[in-house]
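Expect sequence, tokenised fold; for instance:
***
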Amino acid sequence: MQKDIDILRKSLRHISDRVVTSEKLLIDSQILLEKIHSTIKQENKSLPIYQKFIHILSRESPYIYTNEARFPVTEKYIPWQVSFDLYDPTVISLPKQHDCFQDSERLFVEPDLDIEPSVTPMTDITTPLTDYKWNQVVESQLLDGKNIIIDRTTWIATSEDKISSVYRLDKQLSIPLNPMGRTGVRGRGALIRWGPNKSIMAVITRWKKHHDQFTVIDGQRILETLVFEDKYTSGWKLPEAKILGVESPYGVICRNFHEFALKDSDFEHSFSFEEGDMIEYFESFARASISTFEPTGFKSHMVYRGYIDDLRNTDNAWVEAEIWNFHYDSNIPFPNLRQDGVAIWKDVTNSSRGFLIQTSILREIARIHQAFFE
């Protein structure tokens, strides 16, 4: 009798394991179908750009820089308003010593708030958890006396009217909740700050040429964009300036471009370096090879500002960006561009691979210039 019971229990365990495996396969298949659906949705030209940002990269598993699997989240359960009792994501907050952070960023990497919930060191400041001013901009000081402006507001707009929203806080932990919904991972992840992590990004474009002739497909010219190798992901990244609050982000984007593209660290800017100064900096490359009185063939346009679907996003920390397009009609700019393979020009088309940016952004830039994209 006991032997029969043991056999029955063993059979039930096997059945249970198979059910769990089948459920996991079903969820994985559903997420794959949602990725395909998202790709189709991003190609819908009639949709406003803010509606094309769905959690796809933000649910990619395992979590970037780790072997930790994200908790599977289907599209139905992304919104916080939808009850998900089984939701039990792992907590990831990479330490400031991790290779994903640059040396200049480590000072600003915020600690895991779960480690010491009462008092936690924030950069070189000791700040009680209750003093984190969510949805606010505050000014403070580092130990060396430098001012730091910490912007914890969001650029995410609730509709096309571009009115920024206010993100919610976790009711138990009083930490930010990703406004776009669940990601399958809790914590700060591989990001510097809890809540929004803002940056300025530059998409630098020109017309692709072959033997001094424009490359044309279906009667439309093809754009190229300047990208830099990302040694950690083996992908290609755009010039970017993270807004840390100790210097002008518009100045940082110019300095970063100077260092990455031209291998020249001799670039100075003040905290008052503004949007117009950034535009003038990039326009100077078009002006360098022509008469002052001739048109430069340079155009600048802010393409997007808001949420970015990023591999690093978590339930409590996410990426936002202000994305600019600087376009050159001439191929003459950047005569001192480095030639070691770190900076290259890549086609801006739907078939382009390896960009750490959403396809919908590239599509919008191609639309602005009436360039080929499909």
Notes: DSSP finds four helices and 17 strands in the chain.
